[in-house]
Amino acid sequence: MKSQLMSEQQGFSARIGLFLKERARLIFSSALVGSVLLGLWGYVELQAQAPDWRWTLWGVLDAVYSTLRLFVLEAAADTDSSTWPWQVQLARFLAPLSLAGAGIQAVMTLLQGARWKRRMSRLHDHVVVLGAASAGLQLVTECLGKHRKQQVVHVHGPGARADVGGEEGRYYPIEGDAFEARMLQLARVEFAERVIVMTESDHKNIRVAKALAGRLKDREASTATSRVDCFLEMSADVGSPLYRGEAVNHLSTDRLAVHLFNPVRVAARELVRWHPPHVGGCPASGHRPMHVLVVGFESLGREVVKQLIRVCHYLDHNKVQITIVAEKAQRAYRRFLKEVPALDQVADVIFHDADPASITNQVWNQLQSPEQDPPRGAFHAAYITTSDSGDAFAVAMDARDGLGNAPELRTNRADIVLCGNNTFLDNQGEGAVTVFDPQKRVWTTGYLLQGYADKIAMGIHDGYLASRQGSKDFRKKPADREWEVLPENLRDANRDQADHVAVKTVMFGVSEEAILAHASHVESLTKADNKREFTKFAKLHGIPLEELAEVEHRRWMASKALAGFTYGKPRDDKLRHHDDMIPYEDLDDGIQEYDRDVIREFPERLRLARKSDASH
Length: 616
Known about the structure:
The chain has 616 residues and is α/β, with parallel strands linked by helices. Helices cover 50% and strands 11% of the residues. The strands form 3 sheets. The chain has a 6-stranded parallel β-sheet with strand order 3-2-1-4-5-6, with helices on both faces. Strands 9-8-7-10-11-12 form a 6-stranded parallel β-sheet, with helices on both faces. The protein has a two-stranded parallel sheet with strand order 13-14. Helix 5 links the parallel strand 1 and strand 2.
């Protein structure tokens, strides 16, 4: 009992000390202002005791002068202190104490600043985060938490520093604009191990990266000889510099290695990977199309829609149906249609402009009505991506009740995924809402900086390079390059193929063990031998090679459509025209063979996927 009481007293003392430390500036400032006001008040009352006193300018100045004398410990020689009013009595002690306290605090601030600058001047192999996006703040916290010897310099805007708890000794926040040369100098970017650029827009990120490249070229920074890794956040829109590759081509130098990444794209990929709309089974031939609801059309909502278009290709030969519900997002949707002119070829998308929280059961029924053109059924899955917590809560509650009251809809509860950190609806009985928080799940150094999400895609590309090794024109195609220097749009092509692995696994209709056993069997065989062995494997297990090849072609078309391509002959990548964006049955047999080869090589893709899952 005694030890518990002592512990509580120590805890109380620590809380009091922390309270005073955090509010010292406010306390001393209040004391200074209070002493001035009390002094003025008291001296005015003291002077008013004189029979000939009246309000004059000199009288007020005398009160001000007498008050100021309190701050230098002077005493009024012509006045008996015993007759001073209580206001002056209090102010005569409060003034010098507050002044002394403020002086001590100023000296401590100067000493801390000097110590901070001295420590900053010794930084080497540290991490610099330029900007204060949500993912950036998460990376700051993670670097401080996981890498115990890692030091982080964070250049941020007003009030945007990370909450790092007890890691202040390794966290160096600098308030200012990330693209200013002075900020880059303070952050010692030329001696950093990595620099992460994550401001609020692509254009500002590029501006920061240009300033960083300029800083590394300066004579002042020439003492550092190592190359700095710059991780540059960029969106994946067709019109963005990421797609055109301008950021890497124009900013990478012998001193700066630029790596692009998109936190929202990674979040959408992992969201659909772990919570796919086909969790109840992939639609087979004759089944109704997959119908998915996406609530919200902000950055995450747009990426989720794109990911669904990339992934939702099944043996039913239908285009995925996506219903988007968002308020005041028509402009964003029109821009999306402009960026993806061939959208109608690869998906059936409708946009419903409405406040998600105000939608009635009748409207939910209409959005799932078979009377629409083309007909639609109940939602297979619902992704709530809006950042408005009120809307998210309202739609989640509606979704738990079935998103409509028609009898045929009540028996088809959707799988509901709420994106964000809302835990109030997580796993609450029938029709439960699954919470997916990107900040905790995938906005990590592993996913954003070390490429966990790209392991399968890298393996696919390595397989492609191996198959091209003996070709006469090897290294002449844009894709004949290692992953580190591969253009971003070609990386996306590999990512899209990798993200469809889980769907193909289900459509094969064979156990994973059997597929992986076949992968081990053909691992060292030539392409011709692999083709022959897969024919035996497919015949033994009834795998529909031709149907799967058609699915693969539709998946490829969706990938090209999202990259802004349309049908055009001859092929022109600059104009984004491709002559193979036609139905599978209209392709030449040689082109169809490419799709068949993808299916034949699928067991190896699955082996890579399982190896990647085991690695992290």
